[in-house]
């Protein structure tokens, strides 16, 4: 029985390590910032998840101690990963993508980054840049 | 009276539970402290959620969570395969506009998060009027299919939960 659990834990750790590696490798291999964002938001979640499950199983089997705060880590990752990805994507669109390079939104209006009346408009930032250079 | 002390009973319960799990000690001590936090935090943050949606459909929520977990699992394998085996020259990234039928900001936030966590798609932007999402696809030979998939698989279910 001992052996069985050891195999389970090792397998989970190897899977976790593998997906963590793939996520990091994706950052290097993929061609541009938008596609690079995909690797860490997805491949890395399973990497971290498998490692956390391994930790839970190890504590449950060898320490006779049911720990559940690994679950909390998982939930926090699922809550924060999309938000940080969203921020990075937004910054990237703001810097590198012109309005006519993106598909238009349904209905009237514009994407929020290109909306001039948003908190800091593109013009304001350009003015700031110009005044910095002079 | 009860409304005043407990403006958000579910949040109170959730915060207490989260505190117990974080403390990792199931004692009266941490239960009392968790309850204290569960009472104070909803009271302080009440001005930030003036109209919150009413969520009743518990089986649907569980179904949704299970579907999303399954999709996260699949998406990891799909993305790993693209990263490892698909040469960059054959990669077809695409932008997709997803028009929204959802209206509650909470529901749209959940949908945006779900899209980011699931196969090859990532929510990048919301339109200024809040009626469409801009989604980036890692590898999408058929962008329209991606949009229909998102609408049928996630948005329809969220609509049942939130509205």
UniProtKB/TrEMBL annotation, chain A:
Keyword Membrane on entry: yes
* Keyword terms, alphabetized: Membrane, Transmembrane, Transmembrane helix
- Keyword Nucleotide-binding assigned to the entry: answer is no
MF annotations from Gene Ontology: sodium:proton antiporter activity
Q: Which domain of life is it from?
A: Bacteria
List all membrane-crossing ranges: 6-28, 40-59, 71-89
> What is the official name of this protein in its record?
Na+/H+ antiporter subunit G
Organism for this UniProt entry? Pseudothioclava arenosa
TrEMBL record, chain B:
Q: Where in the cell is it found?
A: Cell membrane
Give the main location. membrane
Q: Please list which residues make up the signal peptide.
A: none
Supply the alphabetized keyword list: Cell membrane, Membrane, Transmembrane, Transmembrane helix
Cross-referenced InterPro entries: Cation_antiport_E
Q: Which GO terms describe its cellular component?
A: plasma membrane
Topological category with respect to the lipid bilayer: Multi-pass membrane protein
Entry GO MF terms: monoatomic cation transmembrane transporter activity
Determine the domain of life of the protein's source: Bacteria
Xref: Pfam families: MNHE
Please give the start and end residues of each transmembrane region.
12-44, 64-86
The text of the family note is:
Belongs to the CPA3 antiporters (TC 2.A.63) subunit E family.
Query: Which PANTHER family is this protein grouped with?
Result: NA(+)/H(+) ANTIPORTER SUBUNIT E1, NA(+)_H(+) ANTIPORTER SUBUNIT E1
Q: What is this protein called?
A: Na+/H+ antiporter subunit E
């Amino acid at each position: 029985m001992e052996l069985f659990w050891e195999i389970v834990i090792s397998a989970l750790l190897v899977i976790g390590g593998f997906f963590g590696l793939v996520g990091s490798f994706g950052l290097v291999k993929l061609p541009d910032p938008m596609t690079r964002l995909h690797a860490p938001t997805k491949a890395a979640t399973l990497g971290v998840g498998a490692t956390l499950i391994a930790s839970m199983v190890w504590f449950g089997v060898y320490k006779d101690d049911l720990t559940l705060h690994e679950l909390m880590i998982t939930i926090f990752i699922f809550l924060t990963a999309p938000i940080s990805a969203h921020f990075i994507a937004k910054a990237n669109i703001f810097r590198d993508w012109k309005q006519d390079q993106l598909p238009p939104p349904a209905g009237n209006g514009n994407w929020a980054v290109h909306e001039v009346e948003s908190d800091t408009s593109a013009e304001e930032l350009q003015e700031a840049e110009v005044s910095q250079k002079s | 009276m009860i409304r005043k002390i407990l403006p958000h009973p579910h949040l109170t319960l959730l915060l207490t539970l989260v505190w117990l799990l974080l403390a990792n000690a199931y004692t009266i001590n941490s239960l009392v402290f968790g309850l204290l936090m569960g009472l104070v935090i909803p009271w302080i943050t009440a001005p930030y959620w003036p109209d919150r949606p009413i969520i009743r459909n518990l089986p649907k929520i569980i179904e949704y969570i299970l579907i999303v977990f399954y999709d996260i699992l699949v998406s990891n394998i799909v993305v790993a395969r693209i990263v490892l085996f698909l040469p960059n020259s054959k990669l077809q990234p695409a932008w997709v506009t997803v028009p929204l039928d959802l209206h509650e900001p909470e529901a749209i936030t959940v949908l945006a998060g779900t899209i980011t966590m699931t196969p090859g798609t990532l929510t990048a932007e919301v339109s200024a009027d809040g009626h469409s999402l801009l989604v980036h696809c890692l590898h999408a030979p058929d962008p329209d299919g991606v949009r229909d998939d998102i609408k049928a698989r996630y948005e329809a279910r969220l609509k049942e939960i939130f509205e």
